[in-house]
Amino acid sequence: MPDRSASLNPTAVRPGRRLTAEFWLLPPLTAALPLSAHLPGWLSLACVLLWGWRLALALGGRRLPPVWLRVILALAAVGAILLHYGLTLGRTGGVPLLTLLMFVKLLESDSLRHRRFSLLLAYFVL
Fold it and tell me: Could you please report the per-residue DSSP string of 47-73?
């Protein structure tokens, strides 16, 4: 009898479809590309490193980082933006913060709901 649990789970990935199943990782990267000319180099590098880490985890079939590490990354992102931009309100500090947190969000996207939110966030950043 065939295993129907994989067909009922919308986030289940068949072995031959791993790369196409991780196609959802591209919109956040393409949303950040036009902004990279206006962002500091360290921030663009951090975004690319976070994206590459998530892609490596997905393609390798490894587990996502623990919650405590994701919290530390989010707090470090906020701290780095505050150090670089100060307490600036508006687009000057908000867009870099939202862009960096979008890539931190990728590290916790394990369900279809999180993936949809990441896509909407990429659309909003763009």
Answer: HHHHHHHHHHHHHHTPPPPPHHHHHHH
